[in-house]
Amino acid sequence: MRHALIATLAVLTAGSALAEYPEKPITIVVPFAAGGPTDKVARDLAEALRKPLGATLIIENVGGAGGTLGATKVAKAAPDGYTVLLHHIGMATSPGLYRNLQYKTLDDFEYLGLINEVPMTLIGRPTLPANSYAELAKWLDANKGKVNLANAGLGSASHLCGLLFQSTLKNDMTTVPYKGTAPAMNDLLGGQVDIMCDQTTNTTGQIEAGKVKAYAVTTTKRLTAPALAKLPTLDESGLKGFNVSIWHGLYAPKGTPKAVVDKVNAALKVALQDPDFHKRQEALGAVIVTDARVNTADHKKFVEAEINKWGPIIKAAGQYAD
């Protein structure tokens, strides 16, 4: 009798939580500075979620330590659905990059669904002699030990793409980390560094303006955006299987009631079909996720697979942070 009463109360409580949630604004923690690609995704998503979720969504930027400070804040937040995390591929690479991570990626969060994928482009300084990827490959081979590869800092999208590029080519380059994409791009434009691999959200404008040399995209299929449609993929250029996209997902603290998780997931699926959200994301070069990874269980399986993919690459590079 006692167990039956407890089970009944649990069902009633869950139903009550679903009926009442949300009663106040929801905070989306973005673990990076305002104005960056992840911040833009969060602000677009917040607008698309507002109606299906029936709540005001507030963006809180908690930058630092490659996104781990913001992720830690959400992992330790009250599991009531009012504090969620919007994070990119760093959710899967941080376990390999940081020795003293303050949370367990697969254990300390509820997975709410994948949002989008952002392709990347391989670009070079405007004075680089190579005008195609084939010419670039020859130039890189002829200049082993002399090539400067820029990135936006440890754990950044450009850092990860650079690691995979070097690993695939078996060509160690001089990695030049910056505090963000803007200074890295400025030095690329000025010719202080040679190449960089970064998100289309950061490179498309420079490619359109002809300020950098564009060599390839990192997806297995060519992109359709006008400025990028003529670029080959690295896969078709000879780096078979090369595929890097910077994805974004939504997370809640572990222990958030299932009724709340399900309601946010349902609202997310509606938001991902919003025409305005699609237009804004397309303008950033992002592709909305429409497959099973929008489901909570599949989202978690995907992140686990990404952890297994990037862990060995990071370990081989020996690039860690405390």
TrEMBL record:
InterPro entries documented for this protein: BUG, Bug_dom1
Signal peptide: 1-19
UniProt key word rRNA-binding: no
Pfam families: TctC (PF03401)
Domain of life: Bacteria
Keywords: Signal
Stretches that traverse the bilayer: none
Coiled coil: none
SUPFAM superfamilies: Periplasmic binding protein-like II
Record-stated family: Belongs to the UPF0065 (bug) family.
Protein name stated in the entry: Tripartite tricarboxylate transporter substrate-binding protein
Source organism (scientific name): Roseateles paludis
